Amino acid sequence: MLTTICASAAHLRTTMRFGGMRWYEESSMASVNAISPEFEVHNYTQSLDHFNFKPESYATFQQRYILNYKYWGGANTSSPIFVYLGAEIDVTQNLDLSIVDLAARFKGLLLYVEHRYYGVSMPFGSEDEAFQNSSTFGYLSSEQALADYAQVIVDVKKDLSAENCPAIAVGGSYGGMLASWFRLKYPHIVIGSLASSAPILYFDDITPQNGYHVIVSKDFRETSESCYNTIQQSWAEIDRVASETNGLLNLSNIFTTCSPLNSSKDLKVYTEIAYMWAAQLDNPPSYPVNKICSAIDGAPSGTDILGRVAAGVNASVFGNSCHSASGSGLSRKSASAWEWQTCTEMVFPMGYGENETMFQSDPFDINNYTKECVDVFGIKPRPHWITTEFGGHDIKTVLGNFASNIIFSNGLRDPWSAGGVLEDISDSVVALYTEQGSHCLDLYPPTSSDPDWLLALRDKENKIIAYWLAEYYTKLN
């Protein structure tokens, strides 16, 4: 489930795919054709470059979007359009999220738009061509993606004679960030946005760099103090065993790695990711943090620290028969679209000092981070561009002056909530959160076993959206 093990753990953290619903998506969701024929797949001839007028900027590519008319009241009744903003994954893997329930409740049209460079929406015709170098990758940015969404929404509404139908943007994780920014940049196209688990404040020095890992540690400590202590002690033990004769081979055997370890660092990075994923996706009813800690605490009497930790990793969300803990490093050959984005705009400064978390000290180093991006892509990151383009500093004052109709929803067990908006900014830019919730949980398909607090969160979101629509129709009439 990993993209790559990067040369530095700091770069790994920021390039690790958000995974808002990643584990859920990749393990249990099928393609659009396998789900239901009511989803109509279309291709839109999209501009490659929205912001230049050079001859090469007039090139186009085919961008996928999907419509579902099942619940729509129609253009004649100005029924709403719910627009799912695709993020760093094939958009067909997100079709049965709770946005479907919004459409059913409000008689809405469902419109899903795939993010450029993901799924099949590939400039230059194919992934091989699109991922060649910085010249072909250069058209991948959040700004270009937002402009894509704007163009598709406007033209779909025009094609359906639905110009008076209010559109609402929905997104989770990186897609949630895009949803909030879309409302800021294109308020004439959507009347509001639901931004789930959107860490728009995890840039520059707005959020403490250790915020993500502090929450991971809190999740484990609240689950089991002994589990937390075992994990905290395991890092030094991994280093100790690795320094012995045949130490790496012994570690490979203990942790059942798919191939021999090259260094103790590879193993530590892998186990760190396992804990990060578990905390990020600590969803009911499985609760992977509890699974890991139950395995660690429940290991047979006499099991040493590494044996306990290995049992915990085996119980993690990865669920693999062997563990690919031998990293090849971030390389041009293995580089992904998301890694390009984190080497350009999406620079999350994630790191932590000694005794701040349950992990070994590993501060964020922008110089090492930059070197890796230069080595792979030949470009330097722009770590301050996101806050220049979209804001973030003094957000309550700034957005309070001009923004409206945005819901920021978070679960406080989600490590990304460290960079989320957790306080109301105004009467119409509101923060909803749950103490127990994990990453993007409110967007998961509803089930009969959903806890009351999750139902209450969705109910609040529905009431706010109902108010937006009522306000729109009042003005329309």
From TrEMBL:
SUPFAM superfamilies, A to Z: alpha/beta-Hydrolases (SSF53474)
One term of GO molecular function: dipeptidyl-peptidase activity
UniProt keywords, alphabetically: Glycoprotein, Hydrolase, Protease, Signal
Keyword Magnesium: no
Pfam families assigned: Peptidase_S28
GO biological process: proteolysis
Listed Gene3D superfamilies: alpha/beta hydrolase (3.40.50.1820), Serine carboxypeptidase S28, SKS domain (1.20.120.980)
Keyword Glycoprotein part of the UniProt annotation: yes
Entry similarity comment: Belongs to the peptidase S28 family.
Name listed for the protein in its UniProt record: Lysosomal Pro-X carboxypeptidase
Organism (species): Populus trichocarpa
Source species taxonomy: Eukaryota, Viridiplantae, Streptophyta, Embryophyta, Tracheophyta
